[in-house]
Amino acid sequence: QDAADAARASAQSAINSERAWILVDIPNFEPPNFDPERLQILWIRPAIRNRGRSVARIKRVKGTLLLLPEGNPLPAVPEYPRGPSFDERVDILFPPKTAPLQPRLPITAKEWQDVQDSKVSLFIYGLVEYFDGVSDSGRLTSFCLGYVIQGGYSPAKTGFHPYLNAPAAYTECT
Predict the structure, then answer these.
(1) Among 1, 18, 38, 163, fewest CB within 10 Å belongs to which?
(2) Rounded CA separation 161/27 (Å)
């Protein structure tokens, strides 16, 4: 039994080292200077990337922008759609090291000002359903990013970061 368990663990390790791994972030986000009195829209574009070694087959991309009054927690389970959102059923072959897929989510100048004034917290959450190219297994990457305004002497930049206090349902990966 021990030898069989070791063989299964070794096979799974080999699969994991070669399979597609889909990750989502919002890199190098530069906060805009908006005039809250004018109708202006900022498009936030999450970057979906294949960080693995094999081709992924993307089947669904889903995401939501959520503004919550400052201090309010995220719901225990992600709600779709909750605000501005996208939900695309696709069939895309997605090799590693290619340009990211970047769906977009809108936020108005007034909403952006509320984020800057710390009246509301800004979250982007969603999921990507895909098949990896090694085992042809159905996979899921869920993500939750929070917009953080850095203050004081923090070395981190203002921008979107993985939200560490998100309930587990927001950050599943298979």
Answers:
(1) 1
(2) 9
Neighbouring residues of 69: CB distance < 8 A, sequence distance ≥ 6: 119, 120, 121
Q: How far apart are CA 118 and CA 146, in angstroms?
A: 13
Name the H helices within 119-161: none
Read off the DSSP letter of residue 24.
Answer: E
Task: Read off the tokens for 133.
Answer: 């190219």
Q: Look up residue 101 and give its DSSP letter.
A: B
Answer yes or no: is pLDDT of 11 > 70.
Answer: no
Q: Are 110 and 48 in contact (CB under 8 A)?
A: no
Strands (E), 78-170: 85-94, 105-108, 120-132, 138-148, 159-162
Would you call 114 helix, strand, or coil by DSSP?
A: helix
- Judge if pTM exceeds 0.90: no
Phi first, then psi: give them for residue 35, nearest 5 degrees. -100, 105
Whose structure tokens read 């590693």? Answer: 96
Pick the closest to residue 112 from 31, 45, 47 (CA basis).
Answer: 31
Q: How far apart are alpha carbons 139 and 132 in whole angstroms?
A: 7
